[in-house]
Amino acid sequence: MVSVGLFPVVTFAQLSVSKPLARPLFDKKTVGEIRLTLPTSDWVNVLDSLRIYGTDAMPASVVIDGLRYDGATVRFRGDKSYAKGLKRNPFSIKLNSSSPGQNHQGYASIKLSAAVRDPSMAREMLFHEIASKYMPASQAAYTKLYVNEEYVGVFVNVESVDKQFFENSYGNSRGAAFKAGVDIKPENLPTTCKQNIFGSLEYEDNLDCYKGNFELDSRGGWTELQELTRKLAQEPANVSQVLDVDRALWMLALNNVMVNLSSYSGKHSLNYYLYRDGNNRFQPVHWDLNLSFGSYKNTGSGSDLDLRALQTLDPLLHADNLYKPLISQLLKDPLNKKVYLAHIRQINEENFLNGAYEKRAQELRGMIVVPLNDDKHKTYSYDDFQRSLNNTVGKKSKIPGLTELMGKRSRFLKSHPELTKLPPVVSEVMVKGRGKFENQKLNAFYVTARADKYPLRMYIFYRFADQDAYTMLSMAEESMPDLSAGVKAFAAQIEAKSPEAVLDYYILAENVGAASFLPANYTSQPFKIKLSELNK
């Protein structure tokens, strides 16, 4: 410290010394550490009993990356991923069980996946990362788990789909949230309920029937869920009133490309959430992705698929299946079908045809080589882990290697007749500004655009606030001289709500065979324009 007169001066070096920041819970560049202290050495049997016979949880002290939390509770979680007698089961940790408000970096619930039937240890991480480019998805990161000072293994820490997730993703956490599938079916369900339909969203006359197939994480919402299924069955043209159709199409496209059949797209229509947002529309969210990339192989028709069938899975799987209305009823609409196929094309081009997924999988697996090798409870050998990127592992389960599956699958999708149709390319998108010598200010947004490859129609989707639902408006075709063959111009006028209005928008164009968007990343970065800027 240097003093000048009576006043001390703090040097820059002193100001820069501070405690290191805590590791972000879902940091993707490092492996975290969670330590549980449980009140018994026989904790596996106790957690088994709680999982099988009750809903209670075991009290625990939790240390997350060096930060301690008392008053927490622990349970085994999972359905097909849970197995009695194992230490390396999926865990659910609640930090605020007896300490209301207690959380770690805003997260009160920790979900640890044991990555069952995933010798690569990359399936969940890779799927979540890819899905997050196109729709809200849980964050995921690796963490080492210790129980009573014993190293249990390396797990995938997956962000819980809860109120914090809904608040972060949709700016609202007060809506009803449903999880497809129930661990224990309620007793005395009506005898008229359809059997073994799981979360397929088939319509039921009796509201109580839905309680045998969905878990509700709020006080009300069953009537709204029934209305969603009614519209799917009886008024599919109006289903956008209660469902974010584009997000549903993204979910289905992601499932199909990455052969995620332990989902709505597979036999049992499970492992997804529906959240009713502030616009009273249901939002779909993926969950439990350790069986993606062909680890689970049944579509609900016939026996399990072999490797070739997984590689060549039909992009229009279930398009004619009345028992999968979220797929068949949505894709019955010609524009929805084109949008869905556009999503498949984009996912494939941006992640698989270019090899980006393989590079990322190698990076992810490189992070956990040491902790996985030290894991005495791992399901698969270290050699299986090393081979699983490129080769099938397991004589009975035959879990395909990631590149073995997706290398041929990406090429199959690229050459599929439904995906080789050339979509229109949108260009020259402009918003009219006030003329240099015009006195009257604009009170509307006038948007123009062109598209080639013989477009039939063009639509603009717009909103005035981040959490608003987009409004779809058909753009009018404009007659313009000197346009090249196959090129058309379109325009739309959108009235501004105020002189300070900010417009978010994106463009969709369709021709006879396909559709395309501009900007391509409209789900995260739509075009944005301020009316005040146009009036300068």
Structure description:
- The chain has helices spanning 12-15, 43-53, 123-131, 163-170, 222-234, 245-257, 307-311, 325-331, 334-351, 356-367, 369-373, 382-387, 402-415, 531-534; strands spanning 2-4, 7-9, 32-37, 58-64, 67-76, 91-94, 109-113, 140-147, 150-159, 177-180, 214-216, 272-276, 282-286, 426-431, 444-451, 457-463, 471-474, 476-478, 488-495, 502-510, 515-518, 527-530.
- The protein is built from 14 helices and 22 strands.
- It starts with a strand and ends with a helix.
- The chain is an alpha+beta fold and 536 residues long.
- The model is unreliable at 1-19 (pLDDT under 50).
- The strands form 5 sheets. Strands 3-4-5-6-7-9-8 form a 7-stranded mixed β-barrel. Strands 16, 17, 20, 21 and 22 form a 5-stranded antiparallel sheet that branches. Strands 11-10-12-13 form a 4-stranded antiparallel sheet.
- Helices cover 24% and strands 24% of the residues.
- 40% of the residues are buried.
- A hairpin with a 2-residue loop joins strand 1 (2-4) and strand 2.
- The chain is globular and about 80 Å long.
- The protein folds into 4 domains: 32-163, no CATH class; 165-341, no CATH class; 356-419, no CATH class; 426-534, Immunoglobulin-like (Sandwich), CATH 2.60.40.
Topology summary:
Layout: E1 2-4, E2 7-9, H1 12-15, E3 32-37, H2 43-53, E4 58-64, E5 67-76, E6 91-94, E7 109-113, H3 123-131, E8 140-147, E9 150-159, H4 163-170, E10 177-180, E11 214-216, H5 222-234, H6 245-257, E12 272-276, E13 282-286, H7 307-311, H8 325-331, H9 334-351, H10 356-367, H11 369-373, H12 382-387, H13 402-415, E14 426-431, E15 444-451, E16 457-463, E17 471-474, E18 476-478, E19 488-495, E20 502-510, E21 515-518, E22 527-530, H14 531-534
